[in-house]
Amino acid sequence: MDHSWRQDPAVPAFDDTVPVALMDAECAICSWGARMIHRLDRSGRVRICPIQSPLGRALLAHHGFEPRDPSSWLYLDQGRAHSDFDAVIHAGESFGGWGRLCAVLRLIPKRPRDWLYLQLARNRYRIFGRGDLCGLPDPGLQARILRPPA
C-alpha cells in the first residue's frame, strides 16, 4: 500500500481506511456522481471529499493536480490514488452490481479515454452546469461527506 499522503505535512489527517472520492462540490455531474456512489456503494463505506475543502485541495496538490483548476477526479482506495476514468472504473468495480458496468470504459484505449475525460472535465460547467454537492438533501448522502472538524 502506498498511503503517500500520510507523509505529506500539507495533507490534513483523515480516515483513509475507507475509500474516499474527491469531487467538485460545485459541479452538477459530480453531484450526480455522488448520488450514484451513494446508491451503488451498498457497504456505505465510501466517503466524499469536496475538492473545495482544505483536505480536498491538499490531496489534489499532493497528487500533482492544480487545486484551483481541477480537471481530475480522484478515488483513494487501499492506499492508492486512481484518477479520471480509471477512478470511475475502479470505483464501479469495487461497488459490484450495476457499478461493474463502468468497466465498459476499458473498451476505449487509454490515451483516447484520458483525452475524453480531460475534455469533459475542462468543460463540465458549460456542458452539465453547476450544482451544490453539499446542498443535496439526502441525509444518508450528507453523512458520507467529509467535513473539517468544527
Features:
150 residues
Widest β-sheet, arrangement of strands: 2-1-3-4
Sheet with most strands: 4 strands, mixed
String of helices and strands: EHEHEEHHHH
User: How much helical structure, as a percent, in the residues?
Assistant: 25-40%
Mass-distribution shape:
globular
| SSE class | alpha+beta
Poorly predicted segments:
none
| Number of individual domains | 1
Q: Would you tell me the overall average pLDDT?
A: 87
- Please count the beta strands (DSSP E, at least 2 residues each): 4
Strand content: 5-15%
Number of helices: 6
Radius of gyration: 14 Å
Span of the ends, CA to CA: 31 Å
Note down, in words, how this protein is organized.
By secondary structure, the protein is an alpha+beta fold. A four-stranded mixed beta sheet has the order 2-1-3-4, with helices on both faces. The longest helix is centred in the N-terminal third of the chain and has 13 residues.
Brief summary:
The chain has 150 residues and is of the alpha+beta class. Helix content is 39%, strand content 11%.
Task: Provide the fold topology.
Elements: E1 20-23, H1 28-40, E2 47-50, H2 54-62, E3 74-77, E4 80-83, H3 84-95, H4 110-122, H5 124-128, H6 139-144
